[in-house]
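INTERNAL AUDIT FORM
Audit reference: QA-55
Scope: verify that the stored structure record matches its stored sequence.
Auditor: D.O.
Record contents follow.
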Amino acid sequence: MRVIIKRKRNSFRNFNFGTTGNEQEMEPVVFDSYNILTREIASGLSTENVKTIKFIVREFGKGVLEKIISGADLLQLLEERSWLSAERVERLSELLQTIGRHDLDNKVQMYADSAISRNLSNHGYYGIYGMQINENYVETSMYKNIVDHLQRHNTVIMKGPPGTWKSQHAFKYAHYFSEEKSTDKSLIWRVDCNTDLNIFNSFSHLMNFLKIQCVNSKNRITESIEVMLSRALDALANDKYKESKHLFILLGFTSTSLPKETIQTLLQGMKEHTNIFVIATVSESLSSDFNPNVIEMRGMLEKEAIDFLHVPNTTSREKAKVLAKKLSYLPTGLLFARTFMQTTQISIELYLKNLETITNGTTDDSSTKACQLLIQRAETKMSREERKLLHYLPYMNTDNIPVLFLKYLLPRFLIDDSKNVLINNFLKTLRNHSLISIKGVDDSRVVAAHSFTLMILKSSETKEKKTEYLNTLLDFFVSYLDLDARLLEVIHRNVLFLDHAEAFLSNVDIEFESQSSDIKAKLCYLYTAIGITYRLYGNTELSAAVYLSKAKNTVYKSILGCNSFQCNKTENSYDTIEEYLNGSKALRKHCKDIFPKLLSNSNELSKMFINNFVENKCRSSRSISLLCKYSDIDIENVNNNQLSGVEVDHLRSKNLIMDAEHIAETFYIELLIRILYNESKNTWLVEMSKDEFSAGKRTLMKRLSSAYFPVTPESLTQHQLAHRLTYLLKKHMESVHMTSTQAIGPEVKQVRMFCPVFSPVTHRSGIMYMARSIFDDEKFPTLLDEAIRLLDNIDKGIEGKGFTEFGVVKRIGESSLFHSVMTDTLKMECYEKLAKAVQPEKKELLQKAIAIAKRLECQINDMTSWKALSGIHLKIAKLFIRTQTDENIKKAKYHYKKAYDREFESNNTRFTRFHQRAVIHYAECCIQFPKSDELTDARQILFDIKRRIGADALFEDEIKKIDYSLKQLLKNKKPVSTFIGDDDTITREDKGVQTVSSQDGYQKRFCQKTRDRLISDKKRVQSELQRIDMEIEEVEKELQKMNSFSDHK
């Protein structure tokens, strides 16, 4: 990820679809969102705009530019010259800014905000890319011992204190292994073993990398780690990987991070495979069973240490011996000493005196003091803001710090040029003092800092300073991580900060001895944001459960001082939709009891916290656009999608933001609603993704879809709690005093009443739960009919209502595109289910559902930046397949395929159950209604996944059915005149006689050149053309019916 150009508003990011060291290069996917963007830009460019841009890019040559007439011609040229692609749009943005077309540039910005990097799922962190080596590293005798040991055995355990270069030696060997590996199939994988959650996350990413559909084992993290390890080892032993060598780097094993038995299982399981090599680093002894694999890490040899210090003469060599001994020959201490002497140009004698002075009267060892001397020296070269950045580093994921993240930490009043100067000087200073290593260029740089260095930096800080830094970082994460992660733009930003937010939280529990009300609220918010991000991330439900549970416990234990409501698993009978949504009498009483307590506890939050929360919150581009639209604020004055205090006051006068006291009193209520809502969804996913579900059983296809998986009692209870609290919050907000305001204009809506934005959300979600649960046959039709009426009336009486999230209006008096699409999708599903339940009215109800589906087809192309889009395509396809007309079967296949494509657009290449569900539905549809080209396409997709997936049997039945269908079609197929084969030969079929001739070389080159010229146009229009063709067919059929009726008349 990188910042490419300077902008007044959001930083513009360019996302490369590169590899991470393990990942094979794959062909880029051209997303629908890119097609839509290029069409809008091409049509929006005027003749004068095209002329100006042609002058700017005159380096392309006069002859080429003379042929450029329209905006479409220009964009095609930019694509041909590699100035523009789905992954690289920064140059287009620069051109649009240069010619003053900021309206079109904003469209590019929104596309970039929504684009997700191909390697975002693992940040390149777990592969070789994340294993950075300090540029002053040298191979020592200890490293040679490690290499020699691995020549004879496949496991080595490096045991020793900090500063012995354990991780540096491991990374050095990983790079050596990468160069010497036998095939491109070799895997190099890093596992941080300091906590069980970090181990779980690493193996979860490994499952995604190996494309193994495997998540949970009885919903416990420790057992899940063992299951994922077993699956990974099985995959590396199969035909695809068994001829290759693989390397696992296990960093920081401790007896407190995992039970002894689990550690033994991990090491023993890997050790048994001769093609898998393991390097583990520990600071304490493990089981005696592994003693033969342990190498005790020591410092350098005396000669190595003296050579490393680069002393100029014999006298200095004697002093170097003294210094090396004083530093216990530890590589890090020697590196600090050498760097200090080089940067200050002092002699070794004077350095020894300085070291002697600083170590007198302290218990710290000399290596620690050498590090402190170097850090102090580096700080003298830094500005105030740079020194702050330095002291933030120990609280991050120190091996993987993107420069983009450091830029976000700088004050927002700084312009981009100033930020670049500060960051460049900061990194240069740290690098010159051997405190960091850097990989990448410009804004794609990633920084790695040695944990030993930062441990010393952190230990030298006063308690007051630590608290100051932690408070600043807490405010930062609360500002930039969002709870509404439906937009790709938001989930993208959340994922970028995820690892660092988790690393920060591991420090908070230790450093914050007492927590004020404000800090409790911020931590609870951060737990919730991380949990929601993991829920939407794909195959990370257990991590989501951990953080959502922390958030809920914070509210119930720390704020309310009581236990959470317990689910009654036997109570599941409901006569009306209202009963289903609101839950049992006991549940409603629980909500009624805790609601006033949450109000009173929220009042303890300070006004400063609330104002900072509202002003500094980084919002999506859509949210900012809405606030500016309904006020007279110029969107160009809103920097980094954050509001100033003046702007907040102005928006309050327009009833677009609630008063601070009202936001404060409802803060915990809104937070708990989101916790319970997301916990409900996640509990359902956890239940669906249990290990037995992933075993490739015959029920797999049904279990893949939540449509076939009833809502669990626990999940339903959590949702009912969220819905009931939302209802009480809605009633409370109706009494909130509104500011008197005058309309800006007749077309601008005014807010006359506040309403929680979750009010329609919990209604919709509750109806979805009901529709996908198993009910008594007599009750189900009545409930569905009632649900449809509720959805029909869901937007009645909303004129003048401002739907708010934490006091900030997100929607005003009208149905947003997302809300209307989700409501229609759910209504369509209810009509379809009702058609199954009420046979006499089946045809009429199906027609209503299909009418909604056709309306959705026109709307969903405007939702390319929303994460829910894949599921909508699936539901439309599922409905069309029921009618089984030629037209609707074609549409069903189109939407099943689109659902699969959308998953790659929204989830990048992480293979999750959502991808799996879409591709199996597509294959089954092609099998049921066979056409040769579609069957071949489905088969190719399945094999592509099969080549990269551990569970090879997963698609066996589908592939066998496809092969059988293709054979049957071939038997019945009539001879055709010609076709071009894969080997560039032309086959002619005439009266049963087949002749093959080699293609002429000139013709081949001509065809290839033509193909290269047309392929970008093909990608751009193919999808749209298919949809338009279907619409044309539909219109023609309607015209035929009308003509037939007219003739009859």
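Auditor finding: record pair retrieved intact. The first helix runs from residue 32 to 44.
Action required: none
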